[in-house]
Automatic annotation (TrEMBL):
PROSITE patterns: C1Q. InterPro entries: C1q_dom, Cerebellin_Synaptic_Org, Tumour_necrosis_fac-like_dom. This is C1q domain-containing protein. The keyword Glycoprotein applies. Keywords: Disulfide bond, Glycoprotein, Secreted, Signal. It is found in: Secreted. Pfam families: C1q. Residues 1-25 form the signal peptide. Residues 63-198 form the C1q domain. SUPFAM superfamilies: TNF-like. Its main location: secreted. GO terms for cellular component: extracellular region; synapse.
Length: 198
C-alpha cells in the first residue's frame, strides 16, 4: 500500500512539472514559421500594426513573394566616351537569374518589399594605363565604391559587397565614375538577393 501511495505521488508530481513546463514554453516560444503558398507566423504576444495584419490569435500573413534574387553579366565593352547613357549607369545585357523580376532592363534593381538585401559586384578594367571607379548607388547616392588602378596589370577587378536595409521601391544600381569596363566573356557581374523580409 505504501509503495502505491509513493507511486501515485510521483505520477502527480511529474504531471504537474510537465504542465508547468508546457505553460512556460507556451508563453516564451519564438514565433513558429510555416512556409507554403503563404507564410503564416504564429506569435504568442500579438500586436496589430496600422494595416491590421495580425489577428487576435497571434497570426499574421505574409505573401509568398519573399524570394528575390538576380544575377547579371556584361558581354561587351563599355566606353564612357561614346556612351549615350549620360547617367553612367552600368548596363548588364545578360540576366542569368531574375527571381521576382525586380532587376529591370535598365540594369536597376527595384526593391519589391522592405527587407535586408545582399549585393555584390565584380567589374574588370581593360587597359593598363587607366583606373576605374565603380559606385553602388542607392536612390541616386553612393553607398560603397570599388577601385582598380594597377598600371602593370592588363585586367584587374574592382569588387565589393554590402548588406543594405531597403524599403519598397528603393533603387540600387552600379555607376561608372571613372574608366572603361571589360565585359567580354562575362567578366563583369552584378548580383543581389533578399536576405530576409522585414
Amino acid at each position: 500500500m505504501y509503495a502505491n501511495d509513493v507511486f501515485a505521488i510521483i505520477i502527480v508530481a511529474v504531471g504537474l512539472a510537465v504542465q508547468a513546463e508546457f505553460a512556460v514554453a507556451q508563453n516564451d516560444t519564438e514565433p513558429i514559421i510555416l512556409e507554403g503558398k503563404c507564410l503564416v507566423v504564429c506569435d504568442s504576444n500579438p500586436t496589430s500594426d496600422s494595416k491590421g495584419s495580425s489577428s487576435a490569435l497571434g497570426m499574421s500573413l505574409r505573401t509568398a513573394n519573399s524570394k528575390v534574387a538576380f544575377s547579371a553579366v556584361r558581354s561587351n565593352n563599355h566606353e564612357p566616351s561614346d556612351m549615350s547613357n549620360k547617367t553612367r549607369i552600368i548596363h548588364f545585357d545578360q540576366v542569368l537569374v531574375n527571381v521576382g523580376n525586380s532587376f529591370t532592363l535598365e540594369s536597376v534593381f527595384l526593391s519589391p518589399r522592405k527587407g535586408i538585401y545582399s549585393f555584390n559586384f565584380h567589374v574588370i578594367k581593360v587597359y593598363q594605363s587607366q583606373t576605374i571607379q565603380v559606385n553602388l548607388m542607392l536612390n541616386g547616392k553612393p553607398v560603397i565604391s570599388a577601385f582598380a588602378g594597377d598600371r602593370d596589370v592588363t585586367r584587374e577587378a574592382a569588387t565589393n559587397g554590402v548588406l543594405l536595409f531597403l524599403d519598397k521601391k528603393d533603387k540600387v544600381y552600379l555607376k561608372l565614375e571613372q574608366g572603361n569596363l571589360q565585359g567580354g566573356w562575362q567578366y563583369s557581374t552584378f548580383s543581389g538577393f533578399l536576405l530576409f523580409p522585414l
